[in-house]
Structures are given as structure tokens and as C-alpha cells.
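Appendix B, example 12.
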Amino acid sequence: MGSPSKLSPWSLCLILACSSCSASPPRHHPADAAAREWLALLDARRYGETWTEGSEQLRLGVSQEGWARALKGVHAESGAFEHRELHAIREMNRVRNLLEPGEFVIVQYESQYQKLPGVETLVLHHEGDAWRVSGYRVEPKMPWD
């Protein structure tokens, strides 16, 4: 992975294992609980804390200031958070764009923001005894989704 100064903070928000996880029946998973706790920080606009609570990979890849700046941009485009519903969970051993294999979970939510319905995708990495966010993105929900 390149040095943090050469990576765009926005590109790190877009790290994903798949461009779209196939719909799977939602089921209880500890990564979902961890993702929801992290999203609560995001919804409260506590951007610095989302970086602190993120995975080591996230913290090594972008500065706290760069991360916060990118998330502020995402919020500016989408507007205030209204609600979200679990859409899919997918377990993986390897994530594209990350060199090291490990335990990863992709969690997707159908979300409603003030300015758009969206799909939020989070990549979580199992570190020690906790699931931590390694990547996040929100995209507009398409009419055919």
C-alpha cells in the first residue's frame, strides 16, 4: 500500500471487496453490531471518532483529518441521516485492494438520507476480539435496486 500522503482520503472511503454484494438473507452477526456502533458515530458527525474506532488498516492509510474531511463531503452530498435497514452480510478471507488476508465481513444497509435513498457498504476487519471498519461508502440507491 502506498504512503498515506499519496492516497486520496476519498479513495479510502471507497475500499470495497465487491462492487455490490449479492442480496443474502440478513442474519445476526457481531460485525453488524460493530458496524451499527460505528455508524452511530458517523450519524452524530463524530468523524474523528470514526477514524479512532476504525481498523488499523484505515488509520495507517489516511490521516484523521483527511478521513474527517472525506466524511464531511459525503454528508454534505447526502444530507442528514434518517434511517437504515440491514440488506446483506458477506464473510470473506481476502479483500481486493488489501494485501493481507484475514477475516472480513461486508455489511450493506439500505439507508435513507435527507437528500437521497442510498446503499451504505462497510468493510469490517476482525482485529483481536473486535470487528473494526476498514472501509465505507454510500451510493445512491438506483430505481431498479
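The chain has one domain: 27-140. The CA atoms of residues 108 and 121 lie 4 Å apart.
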